[in-house]
Amino acid sequence: MTKNLVYSNTGLSSRQIGLTAEYLQTIQHKKVEVKVVMCNGVLENCYFNPLHNSIACASCQSRSHQLLKEIGISKKDILSFKEYDFEFELPFFNSLEELLDFKFEGINIGRGVASSIISYYRDYHVTSRKYGDIIELECKKSINVLYNFKEIIDKEKPAKVVLFNGRFSEIYPLLEYCRSIDLDFVSLESGAKGTYEIFENSLPHSIKYRHRSMMELWNDKSIENSKITIANEWYKKKRYRDDSIEISFTKNQELNALPLNFDSTKNNVLILNSSEDEMKVIEEFHTDLFNTQNEAIEKIVSQFENNSETQFYLRVHPNLGKVDNVQMKEIEQMNFKNLTIIGPNEPIDTYAIMMACDKTIVFGSTSGIEATYWGKASILLGKSFYYYMEDTCYKPISYEELFKLITTENLPPKSKEACLPYGYYFSTYGIKTKYFEYKGLNNSTFKGKRIKKWYPSTFLYAVRYLFQSRKWAKAYRAALGKRLRLTDLFRYKI
Is residue 166 one of the residues assigned to a domain? Predict the structure, then answer.
C-alpha cells in the first residue's frame, strides 16, 4: 500500500478545505494510506491568516479536524508541526530579483516569500528597505515548514506529497524540497464549477502543463459531439456578462459605451493590462521583452507620440479597482497625448471598445484570445495559458516586430477555430466532485453536512492559541507596522 502525505493548511477556505477533503476521500477509496500534516498554529502566519489572528487559527483547526473526522482519518494519522528554534542571517534584498533567488540550505524559499508578500500587498516592488520585517517573518515561516517536512518525510517515507496550490511561502519550500529529493508531489486546485484539478509534479500556474491538459481534453474523442458548442457558449457567456462560469469583470460596465473622444478614423489600438501580482513570481510567465507592463506601455506609446494617426486606449483591469500600489500609481502618472486611460471602475464597455479598435494588445489576460475569437487582431506581449496555442494571436519577440504589427493596416485576426480548445477547457476542466458542494463561504457542504464557521471545538482551540498572542502581535506589527490592540481580536471575518 502506497502512502500519501497530505499537507492540510486550508481550513479557513471552505472551497479549498472542501476540495482537499474530496481528494482525501477519493484516495482512501483506492486503499491509499494517508497521513495528514497540519501546522497546529505553529507558523507565524499564512495566506488565509496573514496577521496570525488566534480566532482564525482556532477556526482553521476545528474545521479541518471536523472534516478529517468525516472522512475517517484517525488522530494517529494526523501529524502536527513543531516549532524549530534557529538563528539565521538574512541578507538585505535590494530588489525583487534578489529575493526570488534566495535559498536556504540549498532550497529556494525566496520565491514563495515574494509570492505571499506580493499577493498580500498587491505590490511587486518587494525589497528589504520597504518590507524588511515581513520578509524576515515570511522567511522564518518558510524555514519552519522546510525543517518540519524534512523530518516528517524522513520518518514517514511517503510515495507522494499532496498540497494545495503551491506558490505561497508556507507551501513552496515543501514543493522545492520534493523536487530536490525526486519525491513525487501533487498540487490541488479548484477547476471549473463543481470540479477540482490535480497537477502531477507541477504548480497549477504552469503554462506548459495547462497547454498539455487543454489539448488532451480537446482531442478526447469521447466528447466529440458537444465540445464545439460548449466552447462557443463559453465565449458568449464571457462577452455577455454571464457570471455562471466565473466572476464577470464587465458586469457593471455600461453596454456599448465608448470613450467620448473615440475617433474611428484613426488607427486605434486597445491595450488591456493585467494585475502584476499573481503571476509575477512564476518563472514560466517571465518574458525578456519587459520587466513590468507599465514599462512596456510607456515604450509603446512614446514610440508613436508624434504619430497623430495612432491613438492608444489603456483599459485598466477592473481587478485593480481597489488597489493603491506601484502599478496603479505609475499608470496615474502617465501623460501622453496619444494615450487615453480608462480607469478600472469607469463604465466604458471593454468589449465595445475591443470591437471598435483596430487591434488589441494584451499582457496575458483572457481578453487576448477572446479578441481573436470575435474577429479582432490580437497581440500577446506577455505569457498566458494560451501562449503555446498555435494561431490564436500574434506573439512579437521584439519591439521592432511589435511596432510593425501596430502600423500594419488591416492586420488580419488569427483563427477563431484555434481558440475553441481554450473555451472548452475553461468550461469543463477538472474532476467532478462527489462529496463536496461549494455553495458559498458559509453554506458549502461535505457529504451533505454544512461546513460551519464554528464548531464546539473552536472555543478550545481559541483558548489555546490566545496564549500564543506573541506571534499574533509580531505578525500584526510586521504586516501593518503597528501594535496589536485587544479590539482587533473581534475584527476577523471568515
Answer: yes
Contact 124, 327 (CB under 8 A): yes
Integer Cα distance of 422 and 214 in angstroms: 7
Q: Of the candidates 387, 409, 428, which is a domain's last residue?
A: 428
Residue 258's pLDDT is what? 95
Reported as type and span, the H/E element at residue 69 is helix 54-71
Judge if 182 and 260 occupy the same domain: no
Q: Which residues of the chain have pLDDT under 70?
A: 224, 242-249, 251, 486-494
209 part of a folded domain: no
Distances (CA, A) of 198 to 10, 173, 217, 237: 16, 19, 14, 26
Q: How many domains does the chain have?
A: 2
At residue 473, the pLDDT reads: 83
pTM of the model: 0.91
User: Where does 8-138 show beta strands of DSSP type E?
Assistant: 33-38, 78-80, 103-104, 107-108
**Same domain (yes/no): 77, 111:** yes
The three-class DSSP label of residue 322 is coil
User: Which residues does residue 285 pair with via DSSP β-bridges, in sequence order?
Assistant: none
Residue 424 sits in a domain whose CATH number is 3.40.50.2000
Q: Rounded distance, CA 19 to CA 12, Å? A: 13
User: Domain span at residue 383?
Assistant: 227-428
Structure confidence by residue, pLDDT tens digits, 173-227 = 999 999 999 999 999 999 888 899 999 999 999 999 999 999 999 998 877 678 9
From the list 53, 75, 54, the residue with the least C-alpha distance to 64 is 75
Tens of pLDDT along 105-130? 999 999 999 999 999 998 888 999 99
The rounded distance, in Å, linking the Cα atoms of 296 and 381 is 9
What is the Cα–Cα distance from 468 to 466, expressed in whole angstroms? 5
Helices (H) and strands (E) in the chain, counts: 16, 17
Q: Are residues 306 and 294 in the same domain?
A: yes
Same domain, 151 and 179: yes
